[in-house]
Amino acid sequence: MNCTRLKTTGVILLLIVAAPAYAAVQQRVALKPDAVQREVTFETSDGWKIHGTLTVPGSWREGSKLPAALLLHSSMHSQMVWAVYPGWVRIQESIVTLRIDWRGRGRSEGVRRYVEFTPEQRDAVALDVKAALDFLANQKEVDAMRLGVVAEEFSAQPAVIGAMPDPRVRSLVLFSGWLDARAMDQFAAHSSKSVLFIVSREDSRSLDQTVKAYGLMDKHGSELWIEDGLGVGLAMGSVWRNRFPDEQEEKAIDFAAGAWLVKRLTSLGEFREVTINTSDGWVLHATIGLPGNAGRNRTSPGVLLLPTALADRTSYYGLERELVANGLAVLNLDWRGIGKSTNKGALINLSLDDMDRAIIDVRAALAYFASVEGVDPDRIAVLGSAFGAKLAMQAAADDARLKAVALMTPVTKPRELDGDLKAIKAIKRPVMLITGDGFGEATKSVAAAAGQSPNNTIVSYRGGILGYELFNIDPNLERSIAQWFKRQFGRTGGDREEHR
């Protein structure tokens, strides 16, 4: 038997060339992962009591946070299906999982069985999904911003409705999904999420819907696996073993799909909140993010993020994730007076002298960042927006650790022109300057000066949109910034882009 997977633009097609006659199927029993298992209950927003099983890997240590996945069975399966297939058992040894009996099924049957539900009552299973995600996110072992969902057949629809709009949910795996127009709307609205669609070509009910859904997704993170002859849902694992008894166990589809999910969730890295003390008494709050492999005898380049004075570090939420997904560490700083860093007053109450001393915050953040395990202290970059861009320019002038500098819409006033021209020309490292053609002549002069260096990248937008607002008009900007930083740690030369 030869089994070949072909992948073209995110589509994986399993072609069965030949298969030997089936000899015997090994007897299988429910498998027990190296994990702590506990039975749990929670209520939905409409008062339905849901029963489930939470598993926490045996390797978990107090204080750490792991990715987690919600596992949803089909209309006829029970949650025990997740304990039968070794691939799904394996993921329970590396991430937290919650498998539930949704309303009308198993221990969550309640006053009426699922088979007796009206279509409207079946739609309410989406409420079970939402409640399960809330429950999962509140567990002490779970990183609430790294959640995944696996669903099969009927449960794919409530999974999409309940999970796709949730920013905590980053990846989904859908086996043989039953998907209607409402689900398609969610795929279109959240196309940047990573979704693995799996369907057999003989599954006429799901095939067209699955292909249509995949067509709505960003191919950067999603994949479509069209299988040949494996049937429907998680039972594909049984059919695979029946047809290919001599193949290595870990080639089975449950292993492949489980590994895909774990890789997507762990590649998002780990995030935690930290505080940094400055020499003049400020307690600065920041978010640090590390790639999944950082700190395990490996170091990653790092990027310090400085928000504008009129926002806070939450404006870089998406950029944080993009940077970490590209293998870069992140320190996202609320500098003095903004966000949570207000122990000596809010920005609106600070004097100009206090504002001028914000460079102290940047220096303290860089010193802290360079000391973090998993961060390469000799490969650090900085990005600043508006006033934060001015801080980034100032920091680059006197800190050789900064190997690259990104400036989002730095605005130069006429009286600042000479100083900003001198600062931009003094940066002898690659610069990405993001600006607009609607700003004044002084700002345009600084952008033109930056463009004189072949090592620099100039990105120009129409009009005068400032800072993080650019993320709202260009959904690809965060990814472009992350990839630019990634390149700077291994290339020279510049680019020029015009966004019209």
| End-to-end CA span | 54 Å
State which percent range the strand residues make up: 25-35%
Count of helical regions: 16
Structural class: alpha/beta
What top-tier CATH class of the largest domain fits best?
Answer: Alpha Beta
How confident overall, as mean pLDDT?
88
Adjacency order of strands in the biggest sheet? 1-2-10-9-8-7-5-6-4-3
Domain count, please report it: 2
CATH fold annotation of the largest domain: Rossmann fold
Helix content: 25-40%
The major beta sheet can be summarized as: 10 strands, mixed
Uncertain stretches of 5 or more adjacent residues? 1-29, 491-500
Show the helix and strand layout:
Layout: E1 2-8, E2 11-18, E3 35-43, E4 49-57, E5 66-72, H1 86-91, E6 96-101, H2 119-123, H3 125-137, E7 142-152, H4 156-163, E8 169-175, H5 181-189, E9 194-200, H6 204-215, E10 223-227, H7 236-243, H8 253-266, E11 270-277, E12 283-290, E13 300-306, H9 317-325, E14 329-334, H10 352-356, H11 358-371, E15 375-385, H12 387-398, E16 402-408, H13 417-426, E17 431-436, H14 441-450, E18 457-461, H15 469-473, H16 477-488, E19 496-499
Parallel strand pairs: 2-10, 5-6, 5-7, 7-8, 8-9, 9-10, 13-14, 13-15, 15-16, 16-17, 17-18, 18-19
Antiparallel strand pairs: 1-2, 3-4, 4-6, 11-12, 12-14
